[in-house]
Amino acid sequence: MQTSAQQAHTGNRRGRRSRQEILESAARVMAARGYAGTSMSALVKESGLPKSAFYYHFDSKAGLLSAVMEQGARGFFEAMREAHRDPPQGGTPRERLGWYLDRTGEVLENREDFLRLLLVLVMSHEADEAPEALETVTSVRGEGRAYMRHMIRSSFIDEGEDVADTVAGALSHFGMAGFDGSFVSLQSKDGKPVSEYMRELADALAALGEALIASR
């Protein structure tokens, strides 16, 4: 027989597992239906867990959305950092940008649910009742621009730190717009692989960066 401590440990493990299952199910359903279109019955069906499990872990659907976004954001940026470990040394800014954005495209494809839900929340007001989730959206967008700035700056660093800072500051918003557009095109199934969009974005950023340097 299990001792009371063993039973408590088993219960905690099951609780953690069910919470994670809820988060994963909610991410899939909300990404497909949006926040407003996600019902409790759909979440119960997707997860296979009883409704009581949802209310045990989360006070409300808004609280669930906040947790989904927090976990999604953490996973996305962890994946980005892992994908960009050991960047190449030397090479042209275009070559280095190509390396960064090629791997960024792979992360994009593997994090579709989170990014789809993120864009839905950016473009709609359906989650106004979940201010914590909207704060996460704002934070993710800001961190995304900072990460784009880092990639551009790292690609132009051989031109000098001041030049790299100037180019990165000027182009980070454009880079994010290109990233967003690539993801929308992926969702639209336009028939063009994300890797091709990433190559074109690298070409565009490199050309714009070189033009900025030449005009200084």
Structure commentary:
α1 crosses α2. This protein has helices at 4-33, 40-47, 51-57, 61-83, 93-110, 112-123, 131-155, 161-188, 194-214. It is 80% helix and 0% strand.
Brief digest:
With 216 residues, the protein is mainly α.
How are the secondary structure elements laid out?
Blueprint: H1 4-33, H2 40-47, H3 51-57, H4 61-83, H5 93-110, H6 112-123, H7 131-155, H8 161-188, H9 194-214
Task: List the defining traits of the structure above.
single chain, 216 residues, mainly alpha, 9 helices, 0% strand, disordered N terminus
Number of strands: 0
Task: Work out the oligomeric state of the chains in this entry.
Answer: single chain
Using the CA coordinates, give the radius of gyration.
21 Å
Mean pLDDT level: 89
Biggest sheet details: none
Helix and strand pattern = HHHHHHHHH
Terminal Cα span:
77 Å
Question: How many helices in DSSP terms?
Answer: 9
- Structural class by sheet pairing and helices: mainly alpha
Low-confidence stretches: 2-13
- Please state roughly what percent of the residues sit in beta strands, choosing from under 5%, 5-15%, 15-25%, 25-35%, 35-45% or over 45%: under 5%
Shape: elongated
Helix content: over 70%
